[in-house]
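Feature request, filed as a ticket because there's no other form

It would be nice if the structure record came with a short human-readable summary line next to the tokens. Right now we just get the raw output. Example of a typical job, pasted below so the devs can see what we mean:
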Amino acid sequence: MVVSKPQPAGATELIEEAGGYIPPERLEAITRALEFAITAHDGQTRRSGEPYVTHPIAVARLVAELHMDPATIEAALLHDTIEDCGVTSEQLRSKFGPDVTTLVEGATKIEEMGGRTLDTDEGDAETLRKMFLAMAEDVRVVIIKIADRLHNMRTLESLPEHRQIALSRETMDIYAPLASRLGVWQFKWELEDLAFRYLEPEQYRRIATMVTSRRSERERYVRQIETELRAALVEGGIEAEVSGRVKHLYSISEKLHRYSDQGRSFDEIRDLLALRILVENVADCYNALGVVHQRWRPIPGTFDDYIASPKESMYQSLHTSVLGADMRPFEVQIRTYAMHQVAEYGVAAHWQYKEDAVHRDQQYEERMAWLRHLLEWQQEVSGTEDFLESVKMDVFRDQVFVHTPKGAVRVLPAGSTPIDFAYRIHTDLGHNCVGAKVNGKMVPLTTVLKNGDVIEIVRSRVPKGPSRDWLMPSLGYLGSSHSRQKVRQWFHREEREDTAVHGRELLERELRRLGVEKLPADLPKQLGYDSLTDLHAAVGAGDIGVQKIMNRIVDLAPTSQPPKVSPSTVRVDRGEGGVRVLGTAGLHVQLAKCCHPLPGDPIMGYVTRARGVTVHRADCRSAHWGGDAARVVECDWGPTGDLYTAAVEVLAWDRVGLLRDISTIIASDDVNMVAVRTVEHDDRTTTVELTLETTGGAQFARVLSHLDGVRGVISVHRVGG
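Raw output as currently delivered:
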């Protein structure tokens, strides 16, 4: 290989790794991408002080370890060039083609978003959405991002502690589960162990010390079991490869937590060992299982057949746990060599480089079926919290494989019930589920489903809808967040009409109280709602407060009609505020006593014969416009700084301290009470008539809302006009 600059660390190893399975003519493209990355990142360094280009080279080596195609390795080398080096997509496309460029662009989009929102629930949700959309277009983008995160986790020491924790949390919540779901186990285990190291450093060191202190003993025991197992398989006529390993630190920690809940100590955890048997065909898998169970005693309830029922990542293997010498338990995994390739590389096995693309893995679409399901559910989930719950509970959790009465397989999250099964078949079936049969027997709807169960749903003859009890976790009706979202949506739709009616009543009552005849036509759009019905429903559901709507009405009113002629501004009473009388100057202006207009109210002026212009509210019933229309002039509110009077009527149950409480509320809102009069009634109610001075509609609306909350108050409304 010839490069223009000294080769950075890892460059030679990358070419050797890729050259082990990629023909020389295709290796040249990877070499060109390496040279381009070295030049583009020239002068850039990481926080550790290393040349920055060592990072994309390391990411490309991880991708090459999965035996990915050349385009993926090239994109891994170039994945930071657009964001960090000012390289354009057009430059990449001209040098490396559309396939590589699309992969780099996809990785860049995820990086741009993730960096902005890290360490928040919204950031997690958006990272996941971006990841899933990228996977739907090309899963290789996410494989690059997982490799990128793995190398960053390997070199996390140079970052400040808060960043170490934030990145480790995101790795544990998103990247490790994604690697698991995609079946890239060698990445998954290392990501978990590295994140565990920073999130729980004391527990990490404790378990690492325990494991290290007994390593030699375990290694001797593993070698002993391997020898016995090989001999038993040979005796049974089975050709096989046997290997043993100790479980990873994070998985040991998880097991330790479960043992602690049972009051057991680390010394009692004996099943930390696992043996793997690789054979040529499926028949030999089951034959080997028989040999294992004949040689050692199987532990009840620990056998799983993932060959007959593969995981959604298409992982296939037989799992069993047995008791060895001195009653020490260990796990055995049995699979074919082909299954082992899928187990190690997961979905990456589909993209492993092959000259003939026609012979690529035909089961790829099946492996990604879970992603298609998720993208369908995603369209139905609006909130960040719901989306995160759906992903973490339904996607990043173990599954059970159950059957319809006709034998079709359905995959559900572990802990699912017959109702979850019904919703997975069809939403309407879930809404109207009234009973279920499991394996031919009627069972409660709270029954937790197990692998291999055959489910038959009993449907209501009359549409009835779900029960609210289903949403109570303590009752155990639903085990899938997907089902819970469906139930919530049903109640939201069914109650929408009632909610809208309630919201309309609340809004109309407030409008009457403030003396406003109707809402501005464009108000729903101004507040972000498509229609007035949507706004009513939001008010009824409590999503938006009535006070916020009233304030917006006040904000919108002064700008409803821009002046078409030069206005004159005439001060009213005192201060710097005033009314603009359009087309008129030099006249005395006064506010009408009959309707007490406030800033924000639509107003009109009437030119009197002796008192100048009297300004009325546009809907004032005391004003007579029709008698002499020539005297009517357009008015608008100028900059407000004055105090304006308005009459308010409070109806309340008569009690000691009522007037004191009303006065306290008015004073706390910085409103001046000019006059007050009370009228007692025979039904032990009293009417308090107030004359208030406010700075305008917003303050007036606020004080009315506060008065409505006084104990014993029945109604509050504006009077006059």
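Something like this underneath would help us a lot:
The two ends are 91 Å apart (CA to CA).
The first strand starts at residue 241 and ends at 246.
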